[in-house]
Amino acid sequence: MNHDTRHAPHLDPCSEADHHRYGFELPARVEYVSRARKLTRHRLDCWGIAGDVHDTAMLVMSELVTNAVVHSGSHLISCELLNDVKHLRISVRDQGCAPMGPHVCHSRAAEERGRGLLLVETVSAAWGAHASQHGTGRTVWADLAHLHVPYGTTFPRPAERPC
Q1: Res. 96 pLDDT band, cuts 50 70 90
Q2: Which tens digit of pLDDT belongs to each residue from 120-134?
Q3: How far, in Å, CA of 65 to CA of 83, rounded?
Q4: Is residue 12 one of the residues assigned to a domain?
Q5: What's the rounded Cα separation, in Å, for the pair 46 and 42?
Q6: Which of 44, 87, 94, 145 could make an SS bond with 72 (beta carbons 3.0 to 4.6 A apart)?
Q7: Is 43 a domain residue?
Q8: Per the domain annotation, does 139 fall within a domain?
Q9: Closest CA to 140 of 28, 66, 64
Q10: What integer pLDDT is reported at residue 148 of this predicted model?
Q11: How many domains does the chain have?
């Protein structure tokens, strides 16, 4: 198996197949956080999402992927973007393999960590987490408000008025 094909997006980033949903899987390793950002950036570009929403989405994806990589002990993570007229939902699912129990750190570096989800909460319209429906694992998601019409959306034309 070609190593690169394991990490390919589920859908062609700008395909006609699905205009509102995009997902990909990556190894749960720190060096793949940048790959998650790259795939996210490309899809947002395809959808025409720019400006503050684009920048915030990039930040949220980075924080959610980093959180899953650092705290879950997973081997693989799944990322998904859902785009509708009012919200962009970003979700990251891990395998939930980390040992449970308290984690005590006393270093200054440890104090700097753990702020990612607080940041996600601050910049998101809503966010949350839930256990996986199948097996172990957890999904953390965030919604970003926007008024961008999703790529490929068609709306009914208003009825023409007679003169």
Answers
A1: confident
A2: 999 999 999 999 877
A3: 19
A4: no
A5: 6
A6: 94
A7: yes
A8: yes
A9: 64
A10: 57
A11: 1
- Any domain includes 112: yes
Give CA–CA dist 88/149, Å, rounded: 11
DSSP 78: E
The domain containing residue 131 runs over which residues? 19-97+106-145
How far apart are alpha carbons 64 and 80 in whole angstroms? 11
| Residue owning tokens 């956080």 | 33
For residue 149, what are its two tokens? 């019409």
Residues 6+ positions from 129 with CB-CB distance below 8 Å: 138, 139, 140, 141
C-alpha–C-alpha distance, residues 5 and 3, integer Å: 6
Confidence of residue 3 (pLDDT cuts 50, 70, 90): very low
Q: What is the CATH number of the domain that holds 68?
A: 3.30.565.10
To the nearest whole percent, how much of the chain has pLDDT over 70?
67
